[in-house]
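Postdoc handover notes: sequence design on the structure in folder B. Input tokens:
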């Protein structure tokens, strides 16, 4: 691994995570950019990659979504090119996410990379996720304000900005520095140089996401089909009122649905293992037989997990890319959820279990894991 992260995680989590923004100077000593601006531009031309161009010229903000066909008319100043989920598409860049695997995978969103030319940036804004902004090539001035209520407005339909703010952090970042910003703290990056920034983002679901996600699961699985009942109903003198005990009974019906531990786990596993950005899935061609998979592992080959694929152990239940998996070997399934690279030792006795080897072979043939060349 080229870039090594130097961070005291226990101290960071206690003092800053979800609490305060902080500059971690030289957190990646001798930082080496894993991608070039040209490669990033190439990704922004791909329809599968979620990309944006934001420009600020003569006081006018504008923004457009990729894929882009060319970048000829941009000029040398006042714009930024941003690509989401580069960790799904560019393996050297994906390496930057690896040191963050001390945080739970289900909280990870993606690696966003921005390339800015002098005067470029997305403007002052607030994010609703935790972000580690790693400074790559060039230097960039970052200002972060306090998390106080602020007016938000759209200087362009695709941009949400905040009013100018008093900085509590005002720093010039150099390659290898990290700026950590919790949700809700306004920030703004400004550059006089061509610069690359890598944002490792962690987004927690909001209540709306949870309720609507659970509702989808309930519909798909035919849950909650029993209607409200009131055999204890009595004559009303005000037919237009909904009584508190009725509200309570309705609320109890809803709470009861999410309180079924098995359903809650099954739903959450599917929900949390669903990637928020497209994956670069390529089924194995030609497909492997179970014997070939076994031979490869026993011959010392390593299995690599498709970058961005979510493999979760939700309190003993396993989920791979939005689907439940009832594994033939729980320990090996746990290793597959814990590690992104595995050798035969990590899978232990499971390789003696033909049912497990079949399951693994099916995943490999789907393109979820692959053998390094
Ligand atoms: C950027 O890299 O320019 C934007 C990152 C951010 O503000 O979250
Ligand atoms: Co931001």
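Designed sequence:
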């Amino acid at each position: 691994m080229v870039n090594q992260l130097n961070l005291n995680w226990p101290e960071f989590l206690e003092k800053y995570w979800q609490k305060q923004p902080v500059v971690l100077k030289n957190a990646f000593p001798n930082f080496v950019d894993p991608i070039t601006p040209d490669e990033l531009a190439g990704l922004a031309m791909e329809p599968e990659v979620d990309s944006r161009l934001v420009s600020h010229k003569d006081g006018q903000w504008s923004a457009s979504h990729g894929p882009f066909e060319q970048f000829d008319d941009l000029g040398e100043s006042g714009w930024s090119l941003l690509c989401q989920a580069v960790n799904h598409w560019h393996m050297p860049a994906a390496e930057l996410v690896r040191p963050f695997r001390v945080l739970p995978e289900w909280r990870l969103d993606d690696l966003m990379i921005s390339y800015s030319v002098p005067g470029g940036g997305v403007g002052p804004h607030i994010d609703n996720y935790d972000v580690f902004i790693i400074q790559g090539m060039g230097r960039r001035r970052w200002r972060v304000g306090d998390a106080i209520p602020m007016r938000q407005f759209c200087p362009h339909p695709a941009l949400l900005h905040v009013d100018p703010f008093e900085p509590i952090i005002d720093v010039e970042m150099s390659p290898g520095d990290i700026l950590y910003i919790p949700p809700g703290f306004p920030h703004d990056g400004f550059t006089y140089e061509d610069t690359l920034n890598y944002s490792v983002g962690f987004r927690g679901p909001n209540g709306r996401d949870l309720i609507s996600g659970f509702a989808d699961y309930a519909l798909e699985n035919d849950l909650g089909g029993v209607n409200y009942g009131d055999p204890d109903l009595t004559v009303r003198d005000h037919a237009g009122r909904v009584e508190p005990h009725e509200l309570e009974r309705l609320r109890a019906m809803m709470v009861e649905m999410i309180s079924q531990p098995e359903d809650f786990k099954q739903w959450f596993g599917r929900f949390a293992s669903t990637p928020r950005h497209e994956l670069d899935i390529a089924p194995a061609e030609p497909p492997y037989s179970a014997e070939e998979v076994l031979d490869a592992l026993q011959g010392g080959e390593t299995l690599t997990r498709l970058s961005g694929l979510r493999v979760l152990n939700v309190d003993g239940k396993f989920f791979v890319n939005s689907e439940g998996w009832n594994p033939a070997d729980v320990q090996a399934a746990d290793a597959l959820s814990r590690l992104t690279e595995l050798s035969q030792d990590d899978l232990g006795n499971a390789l003696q279990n033909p049912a497990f080897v079949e399951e693994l072979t099916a995943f490999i043939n789907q393109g979820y894991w692959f053998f390094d060349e």
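Context for whoever picks this up: Residues 125, 127, 187 surround cobalt (II) ion (ligand 2) (CB under 6 Å). Don't rerun without checking with the PI first.
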